[in-house]
Design a protein that fits this description.
Blueprint (H helix, E strand, L loop, with lengths): L16 H17 L9 H14 L6 H56 L3 H11 L4 H11 L8 H36 L4 H17 L16 E6 L10 H4 L1 H5 L2 E7 L2 E3 L12 E6 L1 H10 L7 H4 L3 E8 L9 H9 L2 E7 L2 E2 L13 E7 H11 E3 L8 H15 L2 E3 L6 E3 L2 H19 L8 H24 L2 H8 L1 H25 L4 H11 L3 H11 L4 H24 L2
Antiparallel strand pairs: 1-4, 2-3, 2-4, 5-8, 5-9, 6-7, 6-8, 10-11
Helix pairs in contact: 1-2, 2-16, 3-4, 3-15, 3-16, 3-18, 3-19, 3-21, 4-5, 4-6, 4-18, 4-21, 5-6, 5-21, 6-17, 6-18, 6-20, 12-13, 14-15, 15-21, 18-19, 19-20, 19-21
Amino acid sequence: MPIGQVIVDASKILQDPMAVLFLIIGLGFFIGKLKVKGFELGPSVGVLFVALYFGHLGCQLPEMIGILGLIFFLYSIGFQSGPRFFPAFRENGLRFVALGTVMIGTAALGAFGMSWVFGLSRGHVLGIMGGSLTTVSGVAAANHLLKTPGAVALDAAVAAKLVEDSTIAFAITSVFGLVGLLAIIQALPRLLRIDLAREAQKLESASRSRARQGDIDDELRLGPKGPPQARTYRVTNAQAVGKSLGELRFFQATGAVLGKLRRGASLLKPGPTTVLEAQDTVLALGYLPAHEKLRAFLGEECLDDELSGVRLDTASALVTDQRTIGQTILEAVVNRHACILFEVHREGVEMPLSFDLKLEKGDHVLLTGPRAQIDELVKEIGRPEGPIHETDLLTFAFGIFFGLLVGMIEVHTGTPSAGYPVLGSAGGLLLLGLLVGYLRYQHPVFGRVPPAARYLLLELGLLLFMAELGTRAGATIVQGMRQAGIGIFLSGVVVTTAPIFTGYVFGRKVLGFDPVTLLGAITGGMINTPALGIVNKQAGSNLPAIGYAGVYAFATILVTVAGPVILKF
């Protein structure tokens, strides 16, 4: 007689929302990465297709999953874009407003034109606008007015019919508004023969050049190569013996730093006044070109057990102390502490290392040297940066909280109960993310979110949002198509497609946007966050998010206001 049985009921798996969620993400990611003649859908589109199918089968995911995913994605996008967004908006603000106006205007004209062709109601126009632009804000604002007694001069039955029409039209057009838009955005660079990755690299180079005020050579030949190497040398070169490091201009001539010097039984910390003597042994820090110079400058490498036992350390620090602000690398790091500085990041931009580079408040620096000297140097510079794997969850949580709070700010349309959000939660999160990201790089003493953590929040947040949205849309699309016919669907195709190509031509020919910023701005004008994820991935950069953020907020306001305005016609 068997003691027990192991029973696996596969049907129960589809009743578990968490199991369904990760099955959708796994299958969608797999499908999205498949390549056919060099073309791939991408993970977000793959997840959407799978989610639509599961939704059609009756599987539903909790709405909170999509909300949480959207929160993570939008706040992280804003955080990453913050350092560049505000300077870019000061430069391109009017162009962003103009592009958003043209795109939303094109969508509105297309919706009215197609409603005339197919004899559709104003309710259908509302739904077509909302579904084609993948935002419910305009529909919600208009429907709120329709449901509020006395807010509009319409019979109650007529108002109820307009609400029903807008809901059906939104359900039908939202599928192409999602899938069609993502497919167009995915294919657009190839159709236009634009290499987004190369264009993004050009922009990154131009940005660094502007930040450096010209192409400045890396005099120390350090760059982003990681910590320098440590080697020991014996002083045998007669030209170096009897001269101080200051006289020799040792640091400038070699690009290396002497971290320690052993003379007989004494172990010294070298400085500008240290005079080299024959048979001194030194511990030198530098990269390969520097070590090649040191052999001719000092003498051959040697073994020294005492110097080899000196513990070296690498530290990350933030410049905040007045004693260091305004001093050069030579003054603050080399002469005073016999350490080496091998990277400086200022407002998110890696600075070129030169002998006269002055340290500024908020600079993020990487340092190497003997451990005791590094500890002294970090205290004098300002404060140590936290471990690179740690996230400042305090700032992260409150940033999201205040973003949601800003999204609740409402405007009213004449009746006390008819208020609707100006930006909504998405706009508020994006705005606060931009602000925190900008302040983080201006004053990098708070708000750390390591790149790996940001990537996970971006990617997983987007896929969570797409999975929930897809199952919700998949549940109603077939019924909506049967009720309303093909006219609404074709109207949605026009209203989704026309603003994209109109916006691109207007942005390139009239406004003079570069392709990377423009495609990001177009996804903002279409109020489509998943499309931004596709453009970012194609560009291999976060630069498109600058255009997205610049147009998104304005386009959201226009669409929200457009809903009630459409009711007046």
